[in-house]
Amino acid sequence: MYVAELKERHMAATATVNGLRERLKQRRQALLDTDVAGYAKSHGKTAISFGSTDLVCCRTLQGHTGKVYSLDWTPERNRIVSASQDGRLIVWNALTSQKTHAIKLYCAWVMTCAFAPNSQSVACGGLDSACSIFNLNSQVDRDGNIPVSRILTGHKGYVSSCQYVPDQETRLLTSSGDRTCVLWDVTTGQRISVFGGEFPSGHTADVLSVSINSSNSNMFVSGSCDATARLWDTRIASRAVRTYHGHVGDVNAVKFFPDGQRFGTGSDDGTCRLFDMRTGHQLQVYGQQHDNNDNDVPIVTSIAFSISGRLLFAGYSNGDCYVWDTLVAEVVLNLGTLQNSHEGRISCLGLSSDGSALCTGSWDKNLKIWGFGGHRKVIHSLR
Amino acid sequence: MEAAAAAGSEAPPPPAPRSPPGYPDLCGRHRLQVEVQILNWEIGFLGQEELESLEGLQSVSGYCKEVNEYVGSHADPLVPLTKKRRKSCRIWRWLWAKLCFNMSWICCFCGCPCPQRRPICTCRHVKNCCCRCRHCGCPNKNCWKASCCRPCCSLRSLSCPECSCGCVWSCSKFTETCSCLKCSSTCCMSRCLCE
């Protein structure tokens, strides 16, 4: 086929795709009769009111000598692993603030870390394009360092995010600057599936974040520099299940809503959004008005939902950490203005497994744990 | 000889360098072919699957309702409790607010009759009783009522580090104790998290 004919076909196909996308957009618009805030307010919901001491900084975890880039809680036993520009992973006891492990990494340019479901191993990855696994029970080497147990190689770009599949110590999901996500078998070091890349429905730019559905661990979402989020089924690697449009900037963070039917995103465009997983509907935008001439709209770096989904915690590049009331789409608290708040960009945040504490990590080299300090019922025991 | 001489005068020209043949731009054509294939795939996907999937979908309000119902049916340790107040209390509260403001020394004890008093423990004051009348704004350091003091940190429901029993941590300044279901001891933190 001649190049000229190919170019004509390319132009025609592009026009057809654009036309179909416009039709899709109009169909969705027709179904958009309200959003979460509109529905909630019409049913009498009002914003949560936080008192000045309702959410307080309970702990400051100091020890890193570089910017904190990532953190993850254990599913139990209340420990936190953090990754920093100083080239170390530190494992903290959240209750006592003590460091239980400090792991010096071969590659200092780490971008992500994660705790295994059994809390015995941690994984990390970064600019070395590989994911390293460390067993916390390993004997230290002559230099006092924990040796790496396994290195997962195969990505052709930096590893931006990693997460263990819930309740499966042997399955790890990573996202990468090579536009793919990969599901790994940690015991063999082999790639089980590659999501995206050569397949047409994959991301068309760096993938920055992943979140696995805790209600159905076969499903996960990814966020990318192509301004979309995509839903994947780990059993069908050849194509994305659905693509979610709406953001106008890199999608830096994705997190499933507690019900497993929706997920949130955070973006360079300064907004967070709530999407319905099954239908693709954009249910709500969480953002604040900015002047058109304002080029310094803080970007959303990280998000987390409270255990009921009522609160959306969003970390921003300017050090703010907004607490959004998800039902009425209003900011009810800014942790960045509270006593003992961070002094730099919030780079990561995460909720403890029981939802009672939030940990934030920052470029100020610290991590902070926030908890509820107001009036509550006392619960004597948990089963 | 003359033929040989004639042949020598008609010798072929010496070889000269030639430009390489013009090869077709295979990379560009291949790239275009791939792109056209991807676009055709996307046409099929958008047309057949995406548009069809919208048929029969309910409007967004239905899914917003699901979100509201889910949030409303789940407790959240980080969400403040709200109490409904009866209208009849408003006048009383207004009156006490006026009195407390002017006679703060009356309000600042644990038996403060100020109906809007709400014991608030701040991390700073947990070692001393933290009973504080919200309207008076004056802390009382000699509180004797245990119920006045609340642990200021919310990591109460975290597991005991020793036995992961899910036992509730208790503050040594707090009269209520934790009984661990697994180890039958007060296994939780022996000191206030806020110290």
TrEMBL record, chain A:
<dbReference type="InterPro" id="IPR015943">
    <property type="entry name" value="WD40/YVTN_repeat-like_dom_sf"/>
</dbReference>
<feature type="repeat" description="WD">
    <location>
        <begin position="339"/>
        <end position="370"/>
    </location>
</feature>
<protein>
    <recommendedName>
        <fullName>Guanine nucleotide-binding protein subunit beta</fullName>
    </recommendedName>
</protein>
<feature type="repeat" description="WD">
    <location>
        <begin position="244"/>
        <end position="285"/>
    </location>
</feature>
<keyword id="KW-0853">WD repeat</keyword>
<dbReference type="InterPro" id="IPR001632">
    <property type="entry name" value="WD40_G-protein_beta-like"/>
</dbReference>
<dbReference type="InterPro" id="IPR019775">
    <property type="entry name" value="WD40_repeat_CS"/>
</dbReference>
<dbReference type="InterPro" id="IPR001680">
    <property type="entry name" value="WD40_rpt"/>
</dbReference>
<dbReference type="Pfam" id="PF25391">
    <property type="entry name" value="WD40_Gbeta"/>
</dbReference>
<keyword id="KW-0677">Repeat</keyword>
<keyword id="KW-0807">Transducer</keyword>
<feature type="repeat" description="WD">
    <location>
        <begin position="152"/>
        <end position="194"/>
    </location>
</feature>
<feature type="repeat" description="WD">
    <location>
        <begin position="200"/>
        <end position="242"/>
    </location>
</feature>
<dbReference type="InterPro" id="IPR036322">
    <property type="entry name" value="WD40_repeat_dom_sf"/>
</dbReference>
<feature type="repeat" description="WD">
    <location>
        <begin position="61"/>
        <end position="102"/>
    </location>
</feature>
<dbReference type="InterPro" id="IPR016346">
    <property type="entry name" value="G-protein_beta_1-5"/>
</dbReference>
<dbReference type="InterPro" id="IPR020472">
    <property type="entry name" value="WD40_PAC1"/>
</dbReference>
<dbReference type="GO" id="GO:0007165">
    <property type="term" value="P:signal transduction"/>
</dbReference>
<comment type="similarity">
    <text>Belongs to the WD repeat G protein beta family.</text>
</comment>
<dbReference type="GO" id="GO:0005886">
    <property type="term" value="C:plasma membrane"/>
</dbReference>
From TrEMBL, chain B:
<feature type="compositionally biased region" description="Pro residues">
    <location>
        <begin position="11"/>
        <end position="20"/>
    </location>
</feature>
<feature type="region of interest" description="Disordered">
    <location>
        <begin position="1"/>
        <end position="20"/>
    </location>
</feature>
<dbReference type="InterPro" id="IPR055305">
    <property type="entry name" value="GG3-like"/>
</dbReference>
<protein>
    <submittedName>
        <fullName>Guanine nucleotide-binding protein subunit gamma 3-like isoform X1</fullName>
    </submittedName>
</protein>
<feature type="compositionally biased region" description="Low complexity">
    <location>
        <begin position="1"/>
        <end position="10"/>
    </location>
</feature>
